[in-house]
Amino acid sequence: MRLNELKLGGSAIIDHVEDHTAGDPVAERLRALGFVPGEPIRIVAVGPIGADPIAVGIGFTRFALRRAEAARVLLRDAA
Amino acid sequence: MSVLNAALVGNPNCGKTALFNLLTGSRQKVANYAGVTVERKVGRLTTPKGLAVRLLDLPGAYSLVATSPDEAVTRDVCAGTYRGEPAPELLVCVVDATNLRLHLRFALEVRQMGRPMILVLNMIDAAKRQGIAIDVPRLEAEFGAPVVTAVGIRRDGGQEVLRALDLPPPPPPPAMPSGSDFHAEARRILADCVTRPSRLGMALEERLDRWFLHPVWGMVILFALMFVMFQAVFSWAQPVMDLLDAGTAALGQAVGTLLPDGALRSLIVDGVIAGAGSVVVFLPQILILFLWILALEESGYLPRAAFLLDRIMATAGLSGRSFIPLLSSFACAVPGIMATRTIQNPRDRMITILIAPLMTCSARLPVYTLLIAAFVPERRVGGLFNLHGLVLFALYMAGILSALVVARVLKNRDRQEEHPLLLELPAYRLPNPRDLALGLKQRAVIFLSRVGTIIVTVSVLLWALASFPAPPAGAAGPAIEWSLAGRIGHWMLYVMAPIGFNWQICVSLIPGLAAREVAVSALATVYSLGATDSDAANQLQPLLSAHWSLGTALSLLTWYIFAPQCFSTLAVIRRETGSWRMVGITAGYLFAMAYGAAFIVWRISLLLGWGGSP
To answer: For the Ferrous iron transporter FeoA-like domain, which residue ranges apply (chain A) (predicted)?
Structure first.
């Protein structure tokens, strides 16, 4: 499953972030912001139009990102 | 005496700027880094032992693998490779004690630079309140650099930092083998040194975000906030602006009586004082707008607004951050363009600056109302709407729609990689009055000193154009007709006649460059009304409907939607982008659109038989 498929209120564990292009700067940045394997993540809010962008809670920080960006984050089920 | 060069580095939202304000007080200088539009803040302070410190407040960064010009500046200054900046002798790395997981990773990246550094655990009070216990001596040992605590928002919250600056600089910290995982290292250090209760501190954020980010209530709150803000900028500023206007007029008169009649008096009164007045009159709007923006930013709400509006702005190829600058531009493009500082992405910022002048500002209103009243019949449409109101609405919409089109075209032109939204939603905080006051003061100084000088210079120049040469003795007609401006107006006719303008319009457009609404009183002058501003419009109205064709009026209205008839806007673009090229592009494309659109409107009017004399 990918982060863009997770429902509002749902939570999961990050498996890894994949590059969509060679040296993908967005993926690079996601990893720097703490989207790293084993990290629990949950969806705390979705945007008013088309449920895009999404707001996620990771660690003690929240981030807003568009679904296209979230599609880089692969998840595994919350243990 | 020697001065210690130190630099503050840290994540965005680590409270770095509050700490910087606390340490340096009002001894700050704000400018741009050479060659880029990144804001450079430097302050001076003296430690308890009398050591002078020059402290640079580097732009906040999430990583030294830079993805924005801000982060590139931070990276290069830290590395000591930024041209014109001395390498910092000491890095003061600030981390939010309540968000160490994210911030300590960046601190480790900074440590890797191998420069002497100290680590500041900021907002230690909030951490204590949340029950986070940090073993500082242990952290110091694990991290390998001195660690102090601070509370950036408390008056005495910087004492430990000052004491640490007094000590001889620490040796460069140990570096990790290259290719190490900063996250893993941060996690290891935190496991050793920090205990925190499970997510208790997040409860407030959860509750607030449930409202502020709610698809319905979030939008309701946002529009209520924007409505009040727009009201504040648009109408609350008005009495103060009127007062300033009256004040400059009174000052002009008072000075006028002191000086003998002649060119000198005219220069001082009509050139310098009126020019300075047209600068000062923007201040109330700028201060009110920035008070809002700073408060929204400090409180952590601004990124949430960007979240809610992102999808709407994405239709124009922009992100949610562009919304507030564009909204403010309806009052005036000058504060609106200054507000684009909150847009981090440089491309989005440039596009927002480019389209901001298309938002119908309040200075266009006097021109619109004059022409609508003179040429559009007062009539009800569909029993509900007033035709005057509909035309005004159409003029506003024409500006907004063309801005959308321009933004899209610019976006398609640049086929770069995607521009991510990806922004942090920081913890909610009460804005600190001292930080708000300092922020406001900086905006006011920037505007008055750097934009103001350009505007006053241009005003004096325009005054000279409209005053020289003086008419010969016994000459008939208004003086402006004999001046250079009058002559230029007549020459302009070759270019402007194809869009239906007469020479009177051309002449009034020249002083109108100082400010759009000046064109109304300039028209009054050209038509030898010699009326004061307040009733110029009333006297002009029948005159215009008698002398101009409907086509000419429609063409001029169309011209006003687009034309960059405002030197203040161009001056502020120069200041904010640091580039005359950007000014040229803005003025060029807007003039081209104005001319093109007015041409089409005039041609259609001719076909419909609206071009003849009434």
So the answer is: 1-77
Residue B469: is the preceding peptide bond cis (ω within 30°)? yes
Residue A40, strand partner residues: A13
Say what the pLDDT of residue A72 is.
Answer: 94
Tokens for A48, please give them: 């008013």
Mean pLDDT for A36-63 is 90
Report which of B92, B427, B66 is spatially closest to residue A59, judged by C-alpha positions: B427
What are the tokens at B306?
Answer: 């960007």
Per CATH, the homologous superfamily of domain A3-77 is Ferrous iron transport protein A (FeoA) (2.30.30.90)
Nearest to B102 among A30, A33, A49 (CB): A33
Cβ neighbours for B351, distance < 8 A, ≥ 6 positions apart: B317, B318, B322, B407, B410, B411
Instruction: Give the chain B residue nearest A28 (alpha carbons).
Output: B65
Q: Which of B209, B420, B425 sits opposite A66 (nearest CB)?
A: B420
What's the pLDDT score for residue B352?
93
Residue B418: per-residue pLDDT? 66
Residue ranges of chain B with pLDDT lower than 50? 530-532
Give the chain B residue nearest A51 (alpha carbons).
B215
Q: What is the pLDDT of residue B258?
A: 86
Q: Determine the pLDDT at residue B199.
A: 59
Assess contact for B372 and B392: CB atoms under 8 A. yes
Q: Is A47 in CB contact (< 8 Å) with chain B?
A: yes
Per-position DSSP letters for B442-479, written without gaps between them: HHHHHIIIIIHHHHHHHHHHHHHHHH-SPPPTT--S-H
Residues of chain B with CATH 3.40.50.300: 3-197
Residue extents of the structural domains in chain A: 3-77
Inform me whether the C-beta atom of residue A32 falls under 8 Å from chain B C-beta atoms: yes
Nearest-Å Rg of the Cα atoms of chain A is 11
Interchain CB contacts (distance < 8 Å): A and B: 110
pLDDT at B58: 93
User: Whole-model pTM?
Assistant: 0.81
Closest A-chain CA to B11: A33
* B14 annotated ligand binder: yes
Question: Measured between alpha carbons, how far is residue B433 from residues B21, B114, B300, B443 in Å?
Answer: 11, 37, 15, 15
Q: Would you state the pLDDT for residue B417?
A: 54
Asked: is B3-197 a CATH 3.40.50.280 domain? The reply is no
